[in-house]
Amino acid sequence: MQLVIEKSKEKTLLPKIMKAAIKLFNKKGITGTTTKEIAEKAGVAEGALYRHFKGKDELAWYIFTENLNKFSINLQNCVEHKKTAKDKIKVLVSTSLASYEKDKELFTYLLISEHRELNKFPENYMHPGHVVLKIIEEGQKTGELKKMNLYVAGSILMGSLIRFCAIRMYGTVNDDLCNYEDEIFTGIWRAIKND
Amino acid sequence: MQLVIEKSKEKTLLPKIMKAAIKLFNKKGITGTTTKEIAEKAGVAEGALYRHFKGKDELAWYIFTENLNKFSINLQNCVEHKKTAKDKIKVLVSTSLASYEKDKELFTYLLISEHRELNKFPENYMHPGHVVLKIIEEGQKTGELKKMNLYVAGSILMGSLIRFCAIRMYGTVNDDLCNYEDEIFTGIWRAIKND
DNA sequence: TATATGAGTGAATAATCACTCACATATAAA
DNA sequence: TTTATATGTGAGTGATTATTCACTCATATA
């Protein structure tokens, strides 16, 4: 895994373009959004987009990969400071939920783009799945976690989290996800701990 | 001049059109797929599509809602025959995994369309979430399941299942999902049972 | 001061797209 | 047989689209 070269230089219109694009992509889908709309919403000329990206698809791809990588690196940092699998998973849950609440538009985009962009995800970029699998692998070795198929355990951990974000996205749950972090953690922990 | 075309078992071209559309939608997204492509893949004229649907979006919507409803009704039927929450969940898990394996293209489409179509999902149609919530509600009442937030429990149950289908979709897991039904069930059950 | 460069503009363009329609054919009803 | 209805065809159309490009502007460097 490697850190990413930061493309934005603060002075440019790039952040404006990305914010506008994320909102529109969430609402209308990527191919359903026109470059004209992005430019309008960003208060920018259409051509500005092409100073930073080859085209619309590269913009969509960039937003996804950069932010998922950034989020995963952050996750990894939070997790590394903890010693036990229990604490690692606890902080993974709380960080994930808090991240969603902190930037709903961005994380909504990451959720709905997963299936579209994941097959082109760069090998040297970091993905939350990497963090999760590592925790589980190590936890099973130390005996903290029950021996079971890695992907089954990983699916329970990641799947529960993602689904809870999704039902918040749909409006089924309407209050801050952080209110539920203990309950979600407890459920996940009961599923995969060793006893 | 007109070629003699082999007659299919079905009376209309609708099944051909839907099958072709599902495959293309999975590969390129809905707005990324053209009506011309659908017609070509189905071996049909472009106009045939408009004999059955108002347009491309209605076709996409129809495939999603009809099949998700059908699947949910089937789930509900399987579940109703069981008495305990444990057996209900067990059969829900196995039926879901088997359904995915039976028609991967269709269920892949249902998975990736969820975020796009769910907000327009008809109220009188059935959704897997309905089945899941009912099981959990009843199970908590009888004391079989641990008292916890319904949506937390629902997310663990549905999220684990969906994520496992997703990693099969991505090719991370490559063998029949039914091989894992016991392990997945056990994990989910440990998370939500009362003890 | 002169010059080089990166960033932004928006009208113009070439390509693509969803959808239409006049006509053909098959099936069922009258 | 005649009539009606549903289904299928595919070239044609108007609208939309992503992308380009010649030009401007601001800033930094020599």
What's a concise summary of this model?
Two copies of one chain form a homodimer. The first copy, chain A, is an all-alpha fold and 195 residues long.
Characterization of this structure:
Two copies of one chain form a homodimer. Chain A is an all-alpha fold. Chain A folds into two domains: 8-52, Homeodomain-like (Arc Repressor Mutant, subunit A, Orthogonal Bundle); 57-192, Orthogonal Bundle (Tetracycline Repressor, domain 2), CATH 1.10.357.10. Helix content of chain A is 67%, strand content 0%. Chain A is built from nine helices and no strands. The longest helix of chain A has 25 residues, at 56-80. The interface between A and B is large, with 41 and 41 residues. Chain B binds a DNA duplex (30 and 30 nucleotides) through residues 2, 11-13, 34-36, 39, 44-52, 55-56.
Descriptors:
homodimer, 195 residues, mainly alpha, Arc Repressor Mutant, subunit A, Tetracycline Repressor, domain 2, 2 domains, 9 helices, 67% helix, disordered N terminus, DNA-binding
How many angstroms separate the termini of chain A?
34 Å
The oligomeric status of these chains comes to homodimer
> Which shape of chain A, going by the Cα principal axes?
elongated
Helix content of chain A: 55-70%
Q: What is the element layout, followed by pairings?
A:
2 copies of one chain form a homodimer.
Chain A: H1 14-28, H2 35-42, H3 49-52, H4 56-80, H5 85-102, H6 104-117, H7 128-142, H8 150-169, H9 181-192
Helix pairs in contact in A: 1-2, 1-6, 4-5, 4-6, 5-6, 5-7, 5-9, 7-8, 8-9
The structure holds a DNA duplex (30 and 30 nucleotides).
